[in-house]
Design brief:
This protein is mainly beta. The chain folds into three domains: 72 residues, Immunoglobulin-like, CATH 2.60.40.10; 70 residues, Immunoglobulins (Immunoglobulin-like, Sandwich); 72 residues, Immunoglobulin-like (Sandwich), CATH 2.60.40.10. 9% of the residues lie in helices and 59% in strands. The strands form six sheets. The protein has a four-stranded antiparallel β-sheet with strand order 3-2-5-6, with no helix packed on it. A hairpin with a 2-residue loop joins strand 12 and strand 13. It starts with a helix and ends with a strand.
Length: 256
Amino acid sequence: MKKSLILLIVLALALTVVQPVQAAGKWVLNIHNNTEGSVKLKLTGPEKYSFTVATGKVFETVEEGTYDYNYTACGVEVNGKITVTSDDQWLVIENCPGEVIHAKFVIDSHLGDPVTLEMSGPEDYELAISLGSNRFLTIASGEYVYSYEACGTTFGGTVRVLKNGTARLRLLSCERAELLSFGLPNPSNLMMGNHFSFPINITLSGPKNYYIQANPGFNRLDVIRGEYTYLFVAFGRNYSGTLRATGGATWVAFAP
């Protein structure tokens, strides 16, 4: 056999040996940990993975393929198989069995008018919410779907009431919800201290006009950032001036 032919055969064999196999795709594995603590999850398959999964939803990128999984939760070791071929695959770590634990739940409302918050989950609730911090001491822990009507529309979402009693939910003021929804300039928290002994009606003229009834003590309003002229009447005289609402919180006091 000619040397040139032998060389061609050797090269062909070498190319056959070193030709790379096309790599499998990578996909997002959606993991939902319904327990109240972190869980260590191990995957064995095309690759080996070890994740510490906090309470709630976690998203991890893995190689495509079928995996054996293992984790210990609620004092029980769990084994199974899962096949990941798209970004739609979920691995759910179930709630620990046993008695439902009731815990404190705080709802901070920035709405001037009272609302009813409906919660559907481990138990169903209709909570009366007023302006400020609303504390409920015996809400069953777990994940809820909530909704409430305010500002001429319906708001909703999901919230998890934790067994340790640290869960909070914030209801936005109509002004802030409007600003965030329509991409207007970032709102500023205007903190007003009314040192008169009675409510005062304040007119703010600026990037947007506001008409406010400020009660004695602390008052809060979300406004568009910028410079404003204020005007109000007290004791038969006009009070006026200017203020500038910047990022974060702006404080102003009205006094005799």
